[in-house]
Amino acid sequence: MGLVIGITGGIGSGKTTVANHFHDNYHIDIVDADLVAREVVEPGSDGLQAIITQFGGDIIHSDGTLNRVKLRELVFADPKNKAWIDQLLHPMIRQKMQQQIQQSTSPYCLLVIPLMAENNLQTMADQVLVVDVSPETQVQRTLARDGVSKEQVHAILKAQASREQRLAIADDIISNDGRSELLAEKIAQLHRKYLALCK
Ligand code: ADP
Protein backbone atom coordinates (compact mmCIF):
# COMPACT_ATOMS: atom_id res chain seq x y z
CA MET A 1 0.00 0.00 0.00
CA GLY A 2 1.36 3.40 -1.03
CA LEU A 3 1.28 6.78 0.57
CA VAL A 4 -2.14 8.20 1.52
CA ILE A 5 -2.68 11.92 1.03
CA GLY A 6 -5.76 13.19 2.84
CA ILE A 7 -7.44 16.18 1.29
CA THR A 8 -10.00 18.33 3.04
CA GLY A 9 -11.55 21.79 3.00
CA GLY A 10 -14.86 23.41 3.82
CA ILE A 11 -17.88 23.31 1.55
CA GLY A 12 -17.19 25.08 -1.74
CA SER A 13 -13.45 25.42 -1.08
CA GLY A 14 -12.45 23.42 -4.17
CA LYS A 15 -11.60 19.93 -2.83
CA THR A 16 -13.26 18.21 -5.77
CA THR A 17 -11.65 20.57 -8.26
CA VAL A 18 -8.18 19.93 -6.78
CA ALA A 19 -8.66 16.15 -6.48
CA ASN A 20 -9.88 15.93 -10.10
CA HIS A 21 -6.77 17.80 -11.21
CA PHE A 22 -4.51 15.19 -9.54
CA HIS A 23 -6.58 12.45 -11.16
CA ASP A 24 -6.83 13.90 -14.67
CA ASN A 25 -3.23 15.09 -14.97
CA TYR A 26 -1.29 12.55 -12.89
CA HIS A 27 -3.65 9.52 -12.84
CA ILE A 28 -3.78 9.52 -9.06
CA ASP A 29 -6.49 7.29 -7.59
CA ILE A 30 -9.15 9.01 -5.52
CA VAL A 31 -11.02 7.57 -2.56
CA ASP A 32 -14.00 9.82 -1.89
CA ALA A 33 -15.56 9.67 1.59
CA ASP A 34 -18.88 11.08 0.33
CA LEU A 35 -19.19 8.34 -2.29
CA VAL A 36 -18.26 5.66 0.24
CA ALA A 37 -20.81 7.08 2.70
CA ARG A 38 -23.47 6.54 0.02
CA GLU A 39 -22.27 3.03 -0.82
CA VAL A 40 -22.63 1.76 2.77
CA VAL A 41 -26.38 2.51 2.69
CA GLU A 42 -27.07 1.25 -0.83
CA PRO A 43 -30.09 -1.05 -1.27
CA GLY A 44 -29.10 -4.51 -0.07
CA SER A 45 -26.29 -3.24 2.18
CA ASP A 46 -25.89 -4.26 5.83
CA GLY A 47 -25.94 -0.55 6.68
CA LEU A 48 -29.35 0.06 5.16
CA GLN A 49 -30.74 -3.15 6.66
CA ALA A 50 -29.66 -2.04 10.16
CA ILE A 51 -31.29 1.37 9.63
CA ILE A 52 -34.57 -0.27 8.55
CA THR A 53 -34.50 -2.51 11.63
CA GLN A 54 -33.93 0.51 13.89
CA PHE A 55 -36.33 3.06 12.37
CA GLY A 56 -38.86 0.96 10.48
CA GLY A 57 -39.71 0.41 6.82
CA ASP A 58 -40.85 4.04 6.38
CA ILE A 59 -37.20 5.05 6.24
CA ILE A 60 -36.89 3.80 2.66
CA HIS A 61 -38.56 4.97 -0.54
CA SER A 62 -40.75 2.57 -2.52
CA ASP A 63 -37.76 1.86 -4.81
CA GLY A 64 -35.78 0.58 -1.83
CA THR A 65 -33.37 3.52 -1.52
CA LEU A 66 -32.80 5.38 1.73
CA ASN A 67 -35.11 8.33 2.37
CA ARG A 68 -32.44 10.84 3.34
CA VAL A 69 -34.91 13.60 4.12
CA LYS A 70 -36.63 11.39 6.68
CA LEU A 71 -33.32 10.24 8.14
CA ARG A 72 -32.14 13.84 8.46
CA GLU A 73 -35.38 14.72 10.30
CA LEU A 74 -34.82 11.88 12.76
CA VAL A 75 -31.22 12.93 13.29
CA PHE A 76 -32.19 16.57 13.93
CA ALA A 77 -35.08 15.57 16.18
CA ASP A 78 -32.93 13.57 18.61
CA PRO A 79 -29.17 13.59 19.20
CA LYS A 80 -29.44 9.92 20.22
CA ASN A 81 -30.45 9.08 16.66
CA LYS A 82 -27.42 10.90 15.32
CA ALA A 83 -25.14 9.05 17.75
CA TRP A 84 -26.70 5.73 16.73
CA ILE A 85 -26.26 6.41 13.02
CA ASP A 86 -22.67 7.59 13.48
CA GLN A 87 -21.79 4.50 15.53
CA LEU A 88 -23.26 2.28 12.86
CA LEU A 89 -21.92 3.94 9.73
CA HIS A 90 -18.58 5.49 10.69
CA PRO A 91 -16.77 2.15 11.16
CA MET A 92 -18.31 0.84 7.91
CA ILE A 93 -17.19 3.96 6.04
CA ARG A 94 -13.67 3.76 7.49
CA GLN A 95 -13.37 0.08 6.60
CA LYS A 96 -14.55 0.63 3.05
CA MET A 97 -12.17 3.56 2.58
CA GLN A 98 -9.32 1.32 3.83
CA GLN A 99 -10.30 -1.35 1.30
CA GLN A 100 -10.30 1.16 -1.56
CA ILE A 101 -6.93 2.54 -0.43
CA GLN A 102 -5.52 -0.98 -0.53
CA GLN A 103 -6.86 -1.47 -4.05
CA SER A 104 -5.18 1.71 -5.31
CA THR A 105 -2.47 1.18 -7.90
CA SER A 106 -1.19 4.75 -8.31
CA PRO A 107 2.09 5.72 -6.53
CA TYR A 108 0.05 7.47 -3.85
CA CYS A 109 -3.68 7.95 -3.46
CA LEU A 110 -5.87 10.86 -2.47
CA LEU A 111 -8.39 10.39 0.30
CA VAL A 112 -11.00 13.14 -0.02
CA ILE A 113 -12.73 13.68 3.33
CA PRO A 114 -14.86 16.84 3.68
CA LEU A 115 -15.35 16.41 7.44
CA MET A 116 -11.80 15.29 8.23
CA ALA A 117 -11.11 17.80 11.02
CA GLU A 118 -14.61 17.34 12.49
CA ASN A 119 -14.23 13.55 12.75
CA ASN A 120 -10.50 13.33 13.45
CA LEU A 121 -9.97 11.34 10.26
CA GLN A 122 -6.53 12.85 9.56
CA THR A 123 -5.28 9.70 11.31
CA MET A 124 -6.13 7.76 8.13
CA ALA A 125 -3.69 9.83 6.05
CA ASP A 126 0.09 10.11 5.97
CA GLN A 127 -0.09 13.74 4.87
CA VAL A 128 -2.92 16.26 4.97
CA LEU A 129 -3.59 18.77 2.21
CA VAL A 130 -6.07 21.53 3.08
CA VAL A 131 -7.79 23.51 0.33
CA ASP A 132 -8.23 26.94 1.83
CA VAL A 133 -10.43 29.86 0.81
CA SER A 134 -12.03 32.78 2.63
CA PRO A 135 -15.56 32.25 3.99
CA GLU A 136 -16.75 34.86 1.45
CA THR A 137 -15.43 32.75 -1.43
CA GLN A 138 -16.96 29.61 0.10
CA VAL A 139 -20.39 31.22 0.30
CA GLN A 140 -20.20 32.70 -3.20
CA ARG A 141 -19.09 29.45 -4.90
CA THR A 142 -21.50 27.23 -2.97
CA LEU A 143 -24.40 29.56 -3.86
CA ALA A 144 -23.42 29.44 -7.53
CA ARG A 145 -22.97 25.65 -7.54
CA ASP A 146 -25.85 24.38 -5.39
CA GLY A 147 -28.61 26.96 -5.90
CA VAL A 148 -29.34 26.98 -2.16
CA SER A 149 -30.19 30.01 -0.03
CA LYS A 150 -27.58 32.21 1.63
CA GLU A 151 -29.03 31.21 5.01
CA GLN A 152 -28.55 27.52 4.24
CA VAL A 153 -24.93 28.05 3.22
CA HIS A 154 -24.21 30.05 6.37
CA ALA A 155 -25.81 27.31 8.48
CA ILE A 156 -23.59 24.68 6.84
CA LEU A 157 -20.47 26.80 7.37
CA LYS A 158 -21.38 27.22 11.03
CA ALA A 159 -21.84 23.48 11.49
CA GLN A 160 -18.43 22.71 9.94
CA ALA A 161 -14.99 23.12 11.51
CA SER A 162 -13.56 26.63 11.39
CA ARG A 163 -10.94 27.68 8.88
CA GLU A 164 -8.40 27.71 11.74
CA GLN A 165 -9.33 24.19 12.92
CA ARG A 166 -8.75 22.85 9.42
CA LEU A 167 -5.49 24.71 8.90
CA ALA A 168 -4.26 23.26 12.21
CA ILE A 169 -4.21 19.73 10.72
CA ALA A 170 -2.57 20.76 7.42
CA ASP A 171 0.85 19.60 6.24
CA ASP A 172 0.29 21.60 3.05
CA ILE A 173 -2.20 24.27 2.07
CA ILE A 174 -3.56 25.17 -1.34
CA SER A 175 -5.05 28.66 -1.47
CA ASN A 176 -7.93 28.72 -3.92
CA ASP A 177 -9.32 32.24 -3.71
CA GLY A 178 -7.89 33.06 -7.11
CA ARG A 179 -8.65 31.71 -10.57
CA SER A 180 -8.58 27.92 -10.91
CA GLU A 181 -5.82 28.21 -13.55
CA LEU A 182 -3.52 29.21 -10.68
CA LEU A 183 -3.92 25.78 -9.09
CA ALA A 184 -1.91 23.86 -11.69
CA GLU A 185 1.58 24.99 -10.63
CA LYS A 186 0.95 24.42 -6.91
CA ILE A 187 -0.51 20.98 -7.63
CA ALA A 188 2.51 20.11 -9.81
CA GLN A 189 4.78 21.04 -6.88
CA LEU A 190 2.77 18.93 -4.45
CA HIS A 191 2.75 16.00 -6.88
CA ARG A 192 6.58 16.09 -6.99
CA LYS A 193 6.70 16.27 -3.19
CA TYR A 194 4.37 13.28 -2.79
CA LEU A 195 6.31 11.22 -5.34
CA ALA A 196 9.52 11.96 -3.44
CA LEU A 197 7.86 10.91 -0.17
CA CYS A 198 6.82 7.58 -1.74
CA LYS A 199 10.43 6.59 -2.27
P1 ADP B 1 -15.80 21.33 -2.74
O1 ADP B 1 -15.62 19.96 -3.36
O2 ADP B 1 -14.73 21.70 -1.77
O3 ADP B 1 -17.19 21.55 -2.16
P2 ADP B 1 -15.71 22.26 -5.51
O4 ADP B 1 -14.42 21.73 -6.05
O5 ADP B 1 -16.97 21.57 -5.93
O6 ADP B 1 -15.64 22.41 -3.92
O7 ADP B 1 -15.77 23.80 -5.90
C1 ADP B 1 -16.95 24.57 -5.57
C2 ADP B 1 -17.43 25.31 -6.80
O8 ADP B 1 -16.50 26.34 -7.11
C3 ADP B 1 -17.52 24.43 -8.04
O9 ADP B 1 -18.60 24.85 -8.81
C4 ADP B 1 -16.18 24.71 -8.76
O10 ADP B 1 -16.29 24.53 -10.14
C5 ADP B 1 -15.92 26.15 -8.40
N1 ADP B 1 -14.49 26.51 -8.26
C6 ADP B 1 -13.52 25.78 -7.67
N2 ADP B 1 -12.34 26.45 -7.70
C7 ADP B 1 -12.58 27.63 -8.33
C8 ADP B 1 -11.76 28.77 -8.68
N3 ADP B 1 -10.47 28.84 -8.34
N4 ADP B 1 -12.36 29.79 -9.31
C9 ADP B 1 -13.68 29.75 -9.60
N5 ADP B 1 -14.50 28.74 -9.32
C10 ADP B 1 -13.97 27.67 -8.68
Automatic annotation (TrEMBL):
EC number: 2.7.1.24
GO BP annotation list: coenzyme A biosynthetic process
Main localization (coarse): cytoplasm
Binding-site residues, ATP: G12, S13, G14, K15, T16, T17
Subcellular location as annotated: Cytoplasm
CDD domains linked: DPCK (cd02022)
Keyword annotations of the record: ATP-binding, Coenzyme A biosynthesis, Cytoplasm, Kinase, Nucleotide-binding, Transferase
Pfam families recorded: CoaE
UniProt superkingdom: Bacteria
A GO MF term: dephospho-CoA kinase activity
A GO CC term attached to the entry: cytoplasm
Pathways per UniProt: Cofactor biosynthesis; coenzyme A biosynthesis; CoA from (R)-pantothenate: step 5/5
PROSITE patterns: DPCK
Catalyzed reactions per annotation: 3'-dephospho-CoA + ATP = ADP + CoA + H(+)
Transmembrane residue ranges: none
Gene3D superfamilies: P-loop containing nucleotide triphosphate hydrolases
Protein family: Belongs to the CoaE family.
HAMAP family from the UniProt entry: Dephospho_CoA_kinase
Chain's role: Catalyzes the phosphorylation of the 3'-hydroxyl group of dephosphocoenzyme A to form coenzyme A.
NCBIfam families in the record: dephospho-CoA kinase
Protein name, as recorded: Dephospho-CoA kinase
Organism placement in taxonomy: Bacteria, Pseudomonadati, Pseudomonadota, Gammaproteobacteria, Vibrionales
Gene from which this protein is expressed: coaE
